[in-house]
């Protein structure tokens, strides 16, 4: 029950943010009176409590070691776990929203620099409806389509935000070594040269 409530809070918080905004939401302190079942809630600010809980989640660092997960390949629907990651290469996860302009730009920039990234596993992961994700790479990163080291994954059960990290902004990048140890991460917009450097170092 607690896990379900936390998952719902995380998901609603993520969906409540501007997907790729580089500004943080301000927390406005409002007090409302709501009487039900004989309880006066004038002294409680539920919105502030939810925001505080979300802020605590955001402050948690990403998983230092890549945990077990189950995502699904977008095109086939076949499950994809951490055991399916090709061995011997670094792995980059990009948590994205298909409607996020910064995510679209990053996909395009990665596509144009594919030759520098062909030795790295790159997984685009999203919790969005697969129908919204269906043509993401074809539209914004067509040079990445069909490449053996590139995959778009559907996170049907919100495992990324439960097991790996809750970012403040999209796109969020997580680079893990071939041994599954976190090397670097960032969220939000970043220069393509900095992205490539972080991926290949």
UniProtKB/TrEMBL annotation:
Pfam families named in the record: AhpC-TSA
Annotated SUPFAM superfamilies: Thioredoxin-like (SSF52833)
Low complexity bias: start-end ranges: 45-54
Domain Thioredoxin: 60-201
Region ranges (Disordered): 28-57
The keyword Oxidoreductase is assigned to this record: no
UniProt xrefs under InterPro entries: AhpC/TSA, Thioredoxin-like_sf, Thioredoxin_domain, Thioredoxin_ResA/DsbE_sf
Signal peptide start and end residues: 1-21
Presence of keyword Protein biosynthesis: no
Gene3D superfamilies xref list: Glutaredoxin (3.40.30.10)
Keyword entries, A-Z: Signal
Gene Ontology molecular function, alphabetical: antioxidant activity; oxidoreductase activity
Stored PANTHER family: PROTEIN DIPZ (PTHR42852:SF13), THIOL:DISULFIDE INTERCHANGE PROTEIN DSBE (PTHR42852)
Stated name of the protein: AhpC/TSA family protein
Organism listed in the record: Sphingobacterium alimentarium
